[in-house]
Write a structure and sequence with these properties.
This protein is mainly alpha-helical and 179 residues long. It is 66% helix and 0% strand. It folds into 2 domains: 61 residues, no CATH class; 101 residues, Annexin V, domain 1 (Orthogonal Bundle), CATH 1.10.220.
């Protein structure tokens, strides 16, 4: 089934919840905002496949490159460099370990080019102490982001979004550590 942009926006905003959606809709022209709101009120339950399709397309609009594509790009650009020797004891860290053990300053830097709702979602994943410190590096957007974090609602697909977001962000944080 081919969806229009308005239908995709309606599905995405309905998944984000009323409060977050209303914050996002404030940035749209009034006629478009009204059309999407009307569509949200009359939206039949979309299939899991349709939701997945919309979310995959949405993730393509995130500034962060996927961890896999960035890793492949890094490996191809360093083909002429000397191979890096790694210790046998060195283990692969999980994306969550990378995120939760990164300095809040680096997390703020990795999120600096992201849209506010993406930053708010990532901040909602972090432990409170780490979230507050990361927010302290985002002075210009701090109040807006704090409101958005508080207004985030739990949705059936939150875990799927969370997994993908953590993978992408952990790849970004690893690249920041290498540079």
């Amino acid at each position: 089934m081919v969806l229009t942009g308005r239908q995709k926006a309606t599905i995405l905003l309905s998944l984000l919840g009323t409060e977050v959606s209303s914050e996002i809709l404030k940035f749209l022209p009034e006629d478009l905002s009204d059309a999407i709101t009307s569509g949200m009120n009359n939206l039949p339950a979309p299939s899991p496949e349709l939701i997945s399709s919309v979310l995959e397309e949405f993730s393509g609009f995130m500034t962060l490159p996927s961890a896999q594509s960035a890793s492949a790009k890094h490996n191809s650009s360093s083909a002429t460099e000397q191979p890096v020797k790694t210790s046998v004891q060195e283990t692969q860290r999980s994306p969550y370990d990378i995120l939760f053990y990164s300095q809040p300053r680096k997390i703020a830097a990795a999120l600096s080019a992201e849209r506010p709702w993406v930053v708010a979602f990532v901040l909602s994943i972090l432990p409170e102490v780490q979230r507050k410190e990361a927010l302290s590096y985002m002075i210009e957007r701090k109040n807006e982001l704090e409101k958005m974090v508080k207004s985030l609602k739990s949705t059936p697909i939150k875990e799927h979004i969370k997994e993908n977001t953590v993978k992408i962000l952990s790849g970004r944080l690893e690249r920041l550590s290498l540079s």
